[in-house]
Design goal:
Elements (H helix, E strand, L loop, with lengths): L7 H8 L8 H5 L17 H16 L3 H13 L4 H10 L2 H7 L6 H9 L3 E3 L2 E2 L12 E4 L7 H7 L10 E4 L4 E4 L14 H9 L2
Antiparallel strand pairs: 1-2, 1-3, 3-5, 4-5
Length: 202
């Protein structure tokens, strides 16, 4: 499936946030890319703000447009506040869980680990990044993959207590999804209500 493989700093500047982690280019040029990027007098429309928020969520979690729309439609049909349910569905993705557990330094790296069959769910290898992890399931590194340098480096000094909905087990190099996260526990700076408003117009 196609993924964005262009300059990450360009996306970070467009969104005005370091969504891929610390960004030296964004720190120096905190304005959108392009010839007129530094012209801040232009006021953004309501639609523009809503669209920007959707793009931020898509790029943050590494989800394409069709996948994102499908997730929104699923969230709309479920009980609860649609925006919060949408974020919970994104958090349940296997690649995101691998990232949250500290097994990979970024979601993109987590996606690669999943695709290359380094990750198991309840003891079975799963190589689908969009796999939905359910509460009670355990995500672990495969035994033969525990010595990988990228995994060891990512786990070194990682604070496993910062996400209260996940329980880490050092002995198996993995963690259990205890329950779905509450909105206030999800650290991403995403205004999900703007996304709900955007899709409600379409």
């Amino acid at each position: 499936m196609a993924r964005y493989i262009g300059p990450k700093s360009k996306i970070a500047r467009k969104l005005g946030e370091p969504i891929y982690g610390e960004d030296k280019v964004l720190a120096k040029k905190n304005y959108p890319p392009g010839q007129h990027g530094n012209n801040r007098r232009r006021k953004q429309s309501e639609y523009g703000l809503q669209l920007l928020e959707k793009q931020k969520a898509k790029y943050t979690y590494g989800v394409l447009e069709r996948q994102f729309r499908n997730m929104f439609e699923k969230a709309s049909s479920m009980k609860g506040v649609t925006g919060e349910v949408l974020l919970q569905l994104l958090e349940q993705r296997l690649d995101n869980m691998v990232y949250r557990l500290g097994i990979a330094p970024t979601r993109a790296a987590a996606r690669q680990l999943v695709l290359h069959r380094h990750i198991s769910v309840d003891g079975k290898v799963v190589n689908i990044p969009s796999y939905k992890v359910e509460p009670g399931q355990v995500v672990t590194v495969r035994e033969k993959s525990k010595s990988l340098e990228v995994i060891q480096d990512a786990l070194a000094g990682f604070n496993h207590s910062k996400y209260p909905w996940i329980e880490w087990d050092e002995t198996v190099k993995g963690g259990k999804l205890l329950h779905l996260p509450q909105r206030e526990d999800i650290p991403e700076n995403i205004k999900e209500q703007l996304i709900v408003e955007l899709y409600s117009k379409q």
